[in-house]
Specification:
The protein is of the alpha+beta class. It has helices at about 25-30, 45-55, 85, 105-120, 135-145; strands at about 15, 60-65, 70-80, 90-100, 125-130. Strands 1-2-3-4-5 form a five-stranded mixed sheet, sandwiched between helices. α4 (about 105-120) links the parallel β4 (about 90-100) and β5 (about 125-130). The longest helix is centred in the last third of the chain and has 15 residues, at about 105-120. The chain starts with 13 loop residues before the first strand and ends in a 14-residue tail after the last helix.
Length: about 160
């Protein structure tokens, strides 16, 4: 048992679809790292509009992980149809965050296990994600889950 009373390997998170009322908790998680703290702000109209657009699209899901009724993790799961791989669907995982106080205790593993199972249930042929090159701990985490850095991702900010 850790000093804060939470088991060292904690797997008992509950996954559920995010609701608009979860936006403050989601933004807290997105800002809870050196990269996010400079780009995320308080809940305002752009976040609310984005959340509404995501939740209105049947191929998009924003999920939260709860522990004892508290949001401790989040991610967005997008289901993308494609022509390659014989017209296969793929799942894209974005905006993955776990409360920094809980990292390394199994909540992230539980979240990703859920996301992968959801992708399988939706008939996806693969799951993909990107992770910033400045997040080596995340790279090791995803590699342990079986993700392979097979492609070089590129972005163009507009």
């Amino acid at each position: 048992m850790a000093r804060d009373g939470i088991p060292e390997r904690m797997m008992d998170v509950t996954m559920r679809a995010a609701e608009a009322a979860d936006l403050p908790a989601i933004l807290r998680l997105l800002a809870d790292d050196p990269l996010g703290k400079n780009r995320e702000t308080a809940v305002d109209a752009p976040y609310q509009a984005a959340f509404a657009a995501i939740t209105a699209d049947p191929n998009q899901e924003v999920m939260v992980a709860e522990l004892d009724g508290r949001v401790v993790g989040c991610f967005q799961l997008s289901f993308i149809p494609g022509l390659s791989r014989r017209g296969a669907w793929r799942a894209q995982i974005e905006s993955v965050r776990i409360d920094s106080a809980l990292r390394g205790r199994g909540a992230g593993q539980a979240m990703m296990d859920w996301a992968i199972a959801r992708a399988r249930a939706r008939g996806c042929a693969l799951v993909q994600l990107t992770t910033d090159k400045r997040r080596p701990d995340a790279h090791r985490f995803y590699a342990r889950l079986g993700f392979v850095a097979s492609h070089e991702g590129m972005k163009l900010e507009l």
